[in-house]
Amino acid sequence: MSDLGHDSPESAAMTGFPEAHCWAVASRVRGDDAYVLLNTGSRTQPYLYGVNCTRHHGRWLETGSSNSPGWEPTGHDPDVGTLSFWGEAPNGAEVVRVAFEGDLIDEPVREGAYLLVWWRVPQPSEWPRLVAFRIGGAWNPRSESIG
């Protein structure tokens, strides 16, 4: 790390967290924006924490974080932002299915968690909704939302 940022969004997201007890579970990057999902708990008792990052002059910086998914404004336009949707998956889950704005999106589960991100979108009036987890090849319906 330099005083002007980090080499990766994962490193920027880890600022202030002890590396021995915290790690990046998943991350997504689009251009100069990134979202990193951390586990700040343990493998047996995870505590997920999301971090928004931006790249400035080739270096990654944290721009905001939260212990829940949601929408956060980005850049100079307060009307658009990054929408994150994440959470813990049940044991054995392989894929999560999420409904948002009329689309069904399937996303792999990694390290017991899922992460979906939408970039430079207005704050939604309807939030993503968890539809199902695929466990052992079979879809198991769920119903959860954020907001």
Polypeptide structure, described:
This protein is mainly beta and 147 residues long. The protein has one helix and eleven strands. The strands form three sheets. A four-stranded antiparallel sheet has the order 1-2-3-4. The N and C termini lie far apart (35 Å).
Note the main attributes of this structure.
four-stranded antiparallel beta sheet, 3% helix, 147 residues, mainly beta
Q: Which structural category do the helix and sheet elements fall into? A: mainly beta
What is Rg?
15 Å
Shape: globular
Largest sheet: 4 strands, antiparallel
Strand content of the residues, in percent? over 45%
What is the average of the pLDDT values?
91
Poorly predicted runs of 5 or more residues: none
Head-to-tail CA distance between termini: 35 Å
Task: Give the tally of structural domains.
Answer: 1
| DSSP helical segment count | 1
Number of strands: 11
| Helix and strand sequence | HEEEEEEEEEEE
Kindly state the percentage of residues in helix. under 10%
Order of adjacent strands in the largest pleated sheet = 1-2-3-4
SSE blueprint and pairings:
Elements (H helix, E strand, L loop, with lengths): L8 H5 L9 E8 L2 E7 L8 E9 L2 E8 L3 E5 L2 E12 L4 E8 L2 E6 L4 E9 L7 E7 L2 E8 L2
Antiparallel strand pairs: 1-2, 2-3, 3-4, 5-6, 6-9, 7-8, 7-10, 10-11
Short overview:
The protein is mostly beta strands.
